[in-house]
Amino acid sequence: MSALRKLFRFHGGVKPDYHKHASTRQPIAGTPIPAELVIPLHQSIGGPPRPLVQAGERVLKGQRIGDADGNVSSAVHASTSGTVTAVEMRRMPHTSGLSALCVVIKPDGRDEWIARQSFDFRNASPTETRDYLRDAGVVGLGGAVFPSHLKLNAGKQGRLDTLVLNGAECEPFITCDDVLMRERGEAILKGAAIMREMLAAGRVLIGIEDNKPEAIAAMMAAARAAGDDAIQVVAVPTRYPAGGAKQLIRVLTGIEVPHGERSTDYGVQCFNVGTAYATHDAIALGQPLISRIVTVAGNVGQARNYEVLFGTPMRDLIAPCAPLPDSDRVIMGGPMMGFRMPGDDVPVVKATNCVLVGSDALFPPPPPEMSCIRCGECAKVCPSDLQPFEMYWFARARLFGKAQEYHLFDCIECGCCAYVCPSRIPLVDYYRFAKSEIWAREVEKEAADQARDRYEFRLLREEREKQEKAAKLAAKTAAGREKAAAALAEAEKPARTPEEEAKHALIAAALERAKAQKERAHPENTSNLSPEQQAEIAAIEARRAEIREQAKPHLRADD
Amino acid sequence: MALGAIVLGGALGYAAVRFRVEGDPLVEKIDAILPQTQCGQCGYPGCKPYAQAIAKGEAEINQCPPGGEEGIHKLADLLGREFKPLSAEHGIEKPKAVALIDEQTCIGCTLCIQACPVDAIVGAAKQMHTVIAGQCTGCELCLPPCPVNCISMEPIAESVESWKWKYPVFKLTPSRKEAA
Questions:
Q1: Interior CA angle at A136 toward A135 and A142, to 5°?
Q2: In chain A, what residues touch B66 (CB-CB under 8 Å)?
Q3: For A389-423, how does the pLDDT look when each residue is reduced to its tens digit (9 = 90+)?
Q4: Which residues of B touch A368 (CB under 8 A)?
Q5: Which of A481, A513, A542 lies at the terminal end of a domain, its last residue?
Q6: Could you give the ipTM of this predicted complex?
Q7: Which H/E stretch holds residue A500?
Q8: Binning pLDDT at 50, 70 and 90, where does residue B175 land?
Q9: Residue A285: inside a domain, yes or no?
Q10: pLDDT band at residue A529, thresholds of 50, 70 and 90?
């Protein structure tokens, strides 16, 4: 129920044109199953999931095809039944236009589900429930795609005061949360109830910008039907970016989460309404996250919201909306924070809240960037209370350490500063540049530290091995010496037992006999010789001696 | 005054013993800047010995090709020396690469394992060897000992995760008036 409650305000913010009506005129539509689904394995923050299927395998709708890599990761599922034609590198819905590992599925058109079973989270431990949600691929659908199971943790106190559901949807053109709330409020509230139980949260505040009266009315009706006084629908003033998690928490509760801390430390956790809906699907219906609501808007004849299977190419979505002929770009997200796509062939993923078709007429290219005149307008509108001009100078001069000192990483890249900049400086581009440089350096530094440790360990190991070898050798020589000494002692030992004496006597007698026998045997050709033969042998011997004498000087000493 | 001198001298002497810094902090600072490739291209057997040589003033700051221009700039800033371009005799700056063993050709001689400064190659005698790509520093020290030349250096390709936003540049386009 909505009561008159005191609202707070966040610093700064802007009021751009919203352009939201075009896409809310019609209800959510389904999309036909495309000819080919390209499902990227890496669709959330954290480690990229490992593929579980191979080319040629048949998969069912909702079958897990990518397994979470560690706890900070989220599983990925087949969006429909069909045959896996390839697990290969495909172009990602990412500004870089680079490729990543995707599972390509050729749908069979039967749309056959896996066996679906609801999950009894009340009789499961919190860890089991979190693991279940991780394997169901539930991530934050507001755009940041942070794995939800990590956020569904009540923290140290074991309970929270407030669960905030974010239905503010402040960015222009995007209406996916708006229509979801209008049409599926009941399921959202059921999902919120599950989250609330997991977090042991006292109250649930659903924050919706007041430019969405239909959604507010629908959610209020749903809350009334649920009959729970702890669930309150709150209309918040329309001001971009009221949908930022920290900004919405500030508006609803007055709590300002300080730099470097989490909202859970202050008893508040915040989820997007779409995430609550997905949680309900996963736990109550046993359906993993395989689709989401996507707004198609911008330079199109008929803007509309669609429920889209992940992996559907964006162009399949744009085509029924009658894009205008001068359309020349596709943006994922809104005009303020969205990312330009490398083409319209890239697939819809969990992070795709909006497919915005653009043209030069709709989004005219900005006039040339001019020098910063230090007017301070950017600091006036910054919802994170930062000093954007300082961060801009340091990012521009590549003094990243200084930029970090001005809390660059508290910047949510909302684009308010660039929106009001009279010099038309693309400030957010500078922050993104600085952030990615800092991240790259951190990765490099970590690798260098690891290499240093491994190198030092190797030196240590080599030294140890050398010592061990030396010790072994010393032990061996010592053992040899001992053996020799023992042998000597044995030889010097005079006393023998009578038995040994007898043995020795026997051996000595045998040796004696052998010697005598040898003496008796003579070579036949040197005995019984005639005197002539003896003379001949003597002559030969003399000649041999003579030759030996002659050869002596020609032979080397060692021969 | 003499008493004061004795007291202060005693205090200083005590502080010198009590707050003694273990090791050479300058070497540590230089070592932190060096990329820890352990490739030996600088002429020293590792990054730490090179750092010690720089600290002693025995080596120039421009002998580390993997550190590149940026590394030289950082060393120059730290040591208050002039920036010098990378010395050509020590090598050229290359994009980061990792070693890749062609497992069909490898004969299992273990020579590369012995050469790797960071123990990033696994294998045993007469068994196939392989490189742990995540630990490889790209030092190329395993290339020369290989008797069958089965190791190659593969440059690390840019991925969606490692992609960096580029420095924003002014787009200079002629104004419409001029173009007309």
A1: 115
A2: none
A3: 999 999 999 999 999 999 999 999 999 999 999 99
A4: 170-173
A5: A481
A6: 0.83
A7: helix A498-520
A8: low
A9: yes
A10: confident
